[in-house]
């Protein structure tokens, strides 16, 4: 999972990630919603944008986002750079414009020097975006107990956690949550085996998922499958933050994605397995 990154660009990206001046009112930074001490996500059900208004969906984790095949719950961005564009210019999130952001960064002598040293053309929209994305690509969390187990350390997880991994595969969770990011590499309908949204009630536009991007009826209620890395750290769960605990999330997945019921023992084993997916943050830039 390790990726080599330019140290100077990574340092600039870290500073920008924590800089509220990227927002229109100088109050919201990337880290305001992607808390690097809370699994790279937000402990609130919905993050607050520049106006204090809650965002439409729960904030996904930024950790290991570089390993996802698309960004955002509905997959509307095909790269970290495109995701950064969308957040900075979203009136409900950072509410800024790129000319304003470039001007703010260029007026900071320290930034100006740093960009001149790291990029031949200095402070530009493309370079600011690249610096942030470069930093985000260092936000990987390898070396989880499960990673160590897969690499041959048979004692890295307990017998009960191994049983949970077996149940995770037997019940079919692995059909969507697989690959290096244990998810994040495909789309899936939320409610394969039942009408989740009818049961939950109070539908919103955000519930439409990919349909908002493609306007294809087959994409209604379809979302990017989230990575399960560090899932024990990123409550609440799902795009609507409806599951407050990991136990709640597993219950919903069994009912609406698998159409099955798990015994309390099997569910407990799976949850213990999921907790082995918590890794170690590689970057030292905080």
Structure, explained:
By secondary structure, the protein is an all-alpha fold. Helices cover 37% and strands 2% of the residues. The chain contains 12 helices and 2 strands; from the N terminus they run ααααααααβααβαα. The protein has helices at 7-17, 30-33, 80-89, 98-106, 109-118, 125-136, 145-150, 159-170, 196-200, 211-214, 246-258, 264-274; strands at residues 187-189, 222-224. It has a two-stranded antiparallel ribbon. Helix 8 packs across helix 12 (264-274). The longest helix is centred in the last third of the chain and has 13 residues, at 246-258. The chain is globular. The two termini are 19 Å apart. The mean pLDDT is 96.
Architecture blueprint of SSEs:
Blueprint: H1 7-17, H2 30-33, H3 80-89, H4 98-106, H5 109-118, H6 125-136, H7 145-150, H8 159-170, E1 187-189, H9 196-200, H10 211-214, E2 222-224, H11 246-258, H12 264-274
Antiparallel strand pairs: 1-2
Q: How would you summarize what this structure contains?
A:
The protein is an all-alpha fold. It has helices at residues 7-17, 30-33, 80-89, 98-106, 109-118, 125-136, 145-150, 159-170, 196-200, 211-214, 246-258, 264-274, and strands at 187-189, 222-224.
Task: Supply the key terms.
globular; two-stranded antiparallel sheet; single chain; 12 helices; mainly alpha
Indicate the mean pLDDT. 96
What summary fits the major beta sheet?
2 strands, antiparallel
Computed over alpha carbons, the radius of gyration is 20 Å
Structural class: mainly alpha
Tell me the β content: under 5%
Order of strands across the biggest sheet?
1-2
**General form:** globular
Q: What is the tally of helical segments?
A: 12
N-C termini distance: 19 Å
Portion of residues in helices? Answer: 25-40%
The number of strands is 2
Question: What is the H-and-E element order?
Answer: HHHHHHHHEHHEHH
Note poorly predicted spans: none
């Amino acid at each position: 999972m390790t990726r080599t990154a330019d140290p100077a660009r990574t340092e600039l990206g870290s500073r920008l990630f924590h800089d509220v001046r990227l927002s229109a009112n100088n109050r919201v930074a990337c880290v305001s919603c992607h808390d690097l001490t809370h699994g790279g996500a937000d402990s609130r059900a919905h993050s607050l944008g520049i106006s204090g208004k809650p965002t439409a969906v729960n904030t996904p984790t930024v950790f290991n986002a570089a390993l996802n095949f698309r960004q955002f719950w509905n997959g509307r961005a095909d790269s970290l750079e495109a995701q950064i564009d969308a957040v900075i210019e979203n009136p409900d999130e950072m509410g800024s414009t790129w000319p304003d952001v470039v001007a703010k960064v260029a007026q900071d002598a320290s930034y100006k020097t740093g960009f001149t040293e790291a990029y031949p053309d200095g402070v530009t929209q493309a370079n600011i975006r690249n610096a942030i994305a470069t930093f985000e690509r260092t936000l990987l969390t390898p070396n989880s107990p499960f990673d160590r187990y897969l690499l041959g350390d048979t004692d890295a997880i307990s017998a009960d956690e191994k049983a949970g991994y077996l149940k995770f595969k037997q019940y079919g969770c692995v059909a969507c949550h697989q690959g290096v990011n244990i998810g994040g590499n495909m789309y899936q309908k939320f409610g394969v085996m039942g009408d989740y949204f009818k049961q939950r009630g109070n539908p919103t536009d955000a519930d439409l998922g990919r349909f908002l991007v493609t306007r294809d009826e087959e994409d209604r209620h379809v979302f990017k499958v989230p990575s399960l890395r560090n899932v024990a750290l990123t409550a609440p769960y799902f795009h609507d933050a409806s599951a407050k605990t990991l136990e709640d999330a597993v219950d919903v997945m069994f009912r609406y994605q698998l159409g099955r019921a798990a015994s309390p023992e099997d569910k407990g084993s799976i949850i213990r397995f999921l907790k082995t997916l918590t890794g170690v943050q590689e970057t030292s830039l905080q």
